[in-house]
Amino acid sequence: MAASDSKDSDMALTILAEQQDGLLILTLNRPDKRNALNTQMYQALTQALQQASQNEAVHVVLLQGQTECFTAGNDLADFMGKTSLEADDPILQFLHTLADFPKPVIAAVAGPAVGIGTTLLLHCDLVYLADNARLQLPFVELGLVPEFASSLLLPRAVGHLKAAELLLLAEAMDAAEALRLGLANRVLAVDELLGFAREQGLKLAAKPPKALQKSKALLKQELRQAVHFVIDIEARAFSQALQGEEAQTRIAHKLGRRG
């Protein structure tokens, strides 16, 4: 349930997996790149979720980063090599796998949660933020468009006007604002976040697993087909934008600033 990132010189495991009493903890582990998600990490996350969905010993999944950073979003250098997002692309496979995952998913978010780091929270069942968390949806800023069915789910969660503000202006929001908008269950001190999320995960994992899964399915059933449909629509629009001059220029400029 872990992947080796061939682009990192030390070949460190970029997704760590730990299982405890029915709880599977998946940790993004590329802190030197602010946990920016690349192809190998998407493949590892998809594999871990697919295995967990079939493993009766796993009742709940907890997704986390470190106390300094959840994820800076997609690895832009890795992204620049893509010409399109086809159905077999590791990114799309991850999106559909998480959207369809049958067991409860908890997210523990500290520090930056950029792009996919925020949109994936819309597919989690419980979300806990550290007081240093900052969520941002910078797609338009990069010449891109929303992804992971955020154009469907975000307006339903926070209303059209607020969703438009978050997606079009692309300004970051802090943990208190995310909590106020209903995008999180609780905000905790940084040093309390991961321990609290684990405790909640173990508490959830101790409940009857079939009842948990059926209850989640009922909560998700209204939008299930729509979510997958919109994921694919957004992916096509994203692919077109990614090949466009605006995105190419903006992303190249951002990579240039990073050296």
UniProtKB/TrEMBL annotation:
Keywords: Isomerase, Peroxisome. It is found in: Peroxisome. One of its GO terms (molecular function) is delta(3)-delta(2)-enoyl-CoA isomerase activity. Pfam families: ECH_1. InterPro entries: ClpP/crotonase-like_dom_sf (IPR029045), ECH/Chromodomain_protein (IPR051053), Enoyl-CoA_hydra/iso (IPR001753). Its main location: other. This is Enoyl-CoA hydratase. It comes from Aeromonas lusitana.
